[in-house]
Amino acid sequence: MARGIAVFAGVSPDVIRASAGEAEALGYGSFWVNHPPTADGLTALAIAARESRRLELGVGVVPLQTRGPQSIIDGTRTNSLSPDRLLLGVGSAGLGALRRVREGVAQLRVLGCRIVVGALGPKMCRLAGEVADGVLFNWLTPAHARCSADWVRAGAAEARRRPPRMMAYVRVAIGGAARDRLRNEAARYAAIPAYATSFKRMGVPAVDTGIAVDGPEMVPQALEPWDGVLDDLVIRIIPAADTVADHLVVVRAARPRSG
Q1: Could you give the dihedral angle defined by the CA atoms of residues 87, 55, 48 and 86, in that order, rounded to the nearest 10 degrees?
Q2: Position 108 pLDDT exceeds 70
Q3: Is 259 part of any domain?
Q4: How many folded domains does the chain comprise?
Q5: 178 domain-assigned
Q6: Is pLDDT above 80 for 238?
Q7: Cβ contact 196:185 at 8 Å
Q8: Neighbouring residues of 206: CB distance < 8 A, sequence distance ≥ 6
Q9: Does position 231 have pLDDT exceeding 70, yes or no?
Q10: What does DSSP assign to residue 163?
């Protein structure tokens, strides 16, 4: 199971550079940022691209209901993101979400990169299996990841194609201050209707889909339930503070196993 690392796109360039450089040195396979309303994930990803040579570069995910395919194409080219390394994540919510994703994926194929679809429910998972190169799950348990993967495989089978690569963001917080930030972030997502439905479907509170531990030495064991569940596990850093040091604590604690 490959392992990636993910940071909030709005952190300082120094944090992105340091986290990407350390991730590459420690053997991670990919480096990810999100695309929140307050920051441009494609611009943040370009900083990581300049700091690494081997890492795949993912953005997860750009919401198609607020940023159209042509804007994404323009942003990818403006930031000189290499299609060979890029994992371009897109998603959508609300009325017409399935149509927007289907049409958006088709339009984005001009970039020549791998297109990843962010998926929560069974319909989006099946669509991702039908049209995407990868699927990015978010805020879920290992058990529900297996269920979601089955939905994706069903969509791929209906389209008579190989199932796409399946990945999940897993939030990791170390220490009391990071645990508080994880709780706050979980509460924000739990207030979003699509995520609220997903948490109800799983039968668990949002915060319980993340990992919160007291010390770095506890991270490897806490991640063990994810072993072999999907193709990639992407560690989404929840730092105690937005400093280089607090990000690197998680990068090092969750590093891939050697060999």
Answers
A1: -20
A2: yes
A3: no
A4: 1
A5: yes
A6: yes
A7: no
A8: 139, 186, 187, 189, 190, 195, 199
A9: yes
A10: P
